[in-house]
ABC transporter (Agromyces bauzanensis), 259 residues
Amino acid sequence: MSIASVRPGLPLAAVNPVAKVAATVPLSIVLVLTLDPVSAAVAIACELLVFTLVGFGPLLWSPRTLPIWIAAPLTGLSMVLYGAPSGETYWEFGVILVTEGSLLIGLATMTRVIAIALPAVVLFLTIDPTDLADGLAQTLHLPARFVLGALAGLRLVGSSVDDWRTLRLARRARGVADHGVVRRGLGQAFALLVLAIRRGSTLATAMEARGFGAPGERTWARVARFGAAEWAVIAVGCLVAAIAATAAVLAGSWNVVWA
């Protein structure tokens, strides 16, 4: 089962995953180079427009993207409270100093987190691990040993949720889950780590025994194609990055992080 539960009819599901990953690179580079709210806000607006036109409108506000909408404001809030002070001071309490500069940094940080994480999460939900492995091996020509190991690891990620649920029920049945939330969570996380290590070792041994690590050129059951649709996806990613950077430069807010 795919860790993203990809459906065949999902938009962009048939596009080579390498193209989807490559489409996010230009925008990520642009937003990492600068810390300003204009470029990130323009990027978010373009992303929402493009994803809505493609058919990802409901997915943008689904529980799968909820962590982004929660984590981004929290990240921005931390920068508002503890960012570098500059300009007019609005509120001061102990080590907390809210200034005009920290507000701008907090806003820029929040929008940048959303602009970078949103396309990564939405596009990842359309990627099947097997298709990703085919693309990495046939399009980027990465070593087969690395690709197959990554594929096996991604396949096991999907079972982690079920393992967590099973461990919780098993520990409760044995009476070892009656402690505090923090202590119970740490104990269960350690048990899940041990289970993952044992399962990974067993899987690695099984794959070696079946010849997955043998030298020589491998064959692949499915052909990973890279055509006009893939180049169009990459072009859209480059276009969004260019629009965001141009808007920031024209607005005079382009702010290189090391300057």
Notes: The chain is about 65% helix and 5% strand. Residues 17-128+226-251 form one domain. The chain has a mean pLDDT of 84. The first strand starts at residue 89 and ends at 93.
